[in-house]
Amino acid sequence: MVTLITPRQPDFRLPRVTPQLAPQPGLQMAPQVPPQGRLTLQTQTIAADTIALRCLDWDRERFDIEFELNNGTTYNSFLIQGEKTALIDTSHRKFQALYCDYLDTLVDLSRLDYLIISHTEPDHSGLVSDILALVPEVTIVGSKVAIQFLENMVHRPFAHRIVKQGDRLELGNGHTLEFISAPNLHWPDTILTYDTGTQVLYTCDVFGMHYCDDCLVDQVPEMLAADFQYYYDCLMGPNARSVLAALKRIEPLTINLIATGHGPLLQHHIATWLDRYRTWSEALVATATYVAVLYTEDYGYSEHLAQAIAHGISRTGMGVELVDMGSTHPHDVREILGRAGGFVVGMPPQTTGATAHPLLSTILTTASPKQAFGVFESGAGQDEPLYPFRNQLREIGLTEAFPPILIKAPPTEATDQLCDEAGTDLGQWLNRDRTVKQLKAVNSDLEKALGRLSNGLYLLTARKGEVTGAMLASWVIQSSFKPLGVTIAVANDRAIVSLLQVGDRFVLNVLEEGNYQGLMKHFLKRFPPGADRFAGISTYTGSNGSPILAEALAYLECEVISRMACSDHWLVYCQVQAGRVAKPDGLTAVHHRKVGNHY
Ligand code: FEO
Questions:
Q1: Which residues are bridge partners to 584 per DSSP?
Q2: How far apart are CA 253 and CA 260, in angstroms?
């Protein structure tokens, strides 16, 4: 029997467990550093020529926006010293001095040849800039997407090597590193690294857990089981298909040790841990609707655009299966498409002999009228013609979820937003039956009572770089005096969620009773992906750069301070930094509902 916990369930708390286990032989503890809670560093040899550096963050209570932590966390990185030396991942910035100073005592940094980046999330790549400052000639190794992300993070040139599934890197002394592509676990740029000499598999987030303890490995699995599952539910469960794909790729490997990026390393119960990932993922995949996104790796911006569309689809709670048409057998494509609720196709190159080309016929013969689809061009200029293919799908009876996306130049923030919103439209189309069913559900007394909570009516408007967004909001409440703060509940599947990250700024426009229908009608319209929401609306720019609606009764300029996941909504807490009332005698528009099971 498998118990699945709702992903990102915010109130799920685990008891604090403090195991009393003997320190490991050979283990060294670096001095504690007082700021920001208790931070310590643990190092230990884990295999021939291989040292683990574990940054122990004993008191961390929240992991970014994702979930509450009750047992702290660790950030693990690894040093392999063959004839060449490689560091696998770094650490969180808060460990800067502790980590860099200690690394300097472990290895002659001038001899560091490679820095392998499993993925670019800052808890592991937070010290990449510091390593580059210490060793400017180090070669950074990562997936193509990871290297692109890093270029935007470190703002300086660096030597790099892009690796794909199956690529190898010789370190000498019997250490050959083999790379395993694991996109979406849980970032698009993820790779795993396998040392064929020591048979250690370095997995970073995958198989990790937020569990801080100086016990290096999984000696007492009962103590770890709940944290292991909670971590899976929050980070990996939403990408269950990708988990199964990664498990398939590591199946042929003989694994002595799984060196994770968080929590203890997995040594004593490897088969059990792998089996849990497999069982949980299979259960999720069996019930969940998903969208297949087909692209061609290394062709134009196909992969980048596919990732942006996949991101938008994920926001609606739909699963996503990314399929590289250049390396996937037609039989597998048929199988993946056959079970998908919908699919998106990035047009492959029409060059003779291209492996992706024949797959278009496979797609046409597998597609079902019940499915929704979308198509995009990659920007490489030699795509198979898009419109004939799209028209054939429409003739079969499929629903086109978004207009064709035609990219002629390198992607920008605006095209990323277009792709993201197109993905969200497709996901929402697939969710439509569920939504209608919810609306039609018999309303209980409880739901009717909940519907009597009244709210004001507001329009949230935001600009971030080239990207703008707007959303009608009613779940808004003042929630602090010092500083002045408000909290807004935003449904997970709203595209504007990406403009409400911590540190983002926006305007909360207060609508006026008797004078809001025009604005409400305009912003409730279904906009095509990437459309300008403000066309035809009178606005001026606030001091934080976001649009202020000229017709608003009042406005507040806000900055996001923190976010909390609450089941199907984000609670976004913001500090109010400026504001003005345009009509002192006007009243705030009020939203009255009958039931509490929808807006
Ligand atoms: Fe532990 Fe995705 O970073």
A1: none
A2: 16
The CA distance from 208 to 165, in Å, is 21
Taking the C-alpha atoms of residue 546 and residue 557, their distance in angstroms, rounded to an integer, is 8
89 touches ligand 1 (CB under 6 Å): no
43 neighbors 54 (Cβ within 8 angstroms): yes
261 ligand 1 Cβ < 6 A: yes
CA of 333 to the centre of ligand 1 (A): 30
Nearest CA to ligand 1 atom 3: 121
* 10-residue averages of pLDDT along the chain (599 residues): 25 27 38 61 95 90 55 93 97 93 91 96 92 96 90 89 96 97 85 98 96 90 88 82 92 97 96 96 82 88 88 83 83 88 93 67 93 92 90 95 91 87 92 69 78 91 90 94 96 85 92 93 86 92 95 96 84 95 93 81
Measured distance between the N- and C-terminal CA atoms of the chain, rounded to whole angstroms = 36
Q: Which atom of ligand 1 is nearest to the CA of 235?
A: 2
**CA atoms of 379 and 302, how far apart (whole Å):** 7
Spatial distance between the Cα atoms of 372 and 475, rounded to a whole number of angstroms: 32
Residue 57 beta carbon below 6 angstroms from any ligand 1 atom: no
Atom of ligand 1 nearest to the CA of 63: 1
The total of other beta-carbon atoms located within 10 Å of residue 174's CB is: 14
Whether ligand 1 lies within 6 angstroms of the CB of 121 is answered as yes
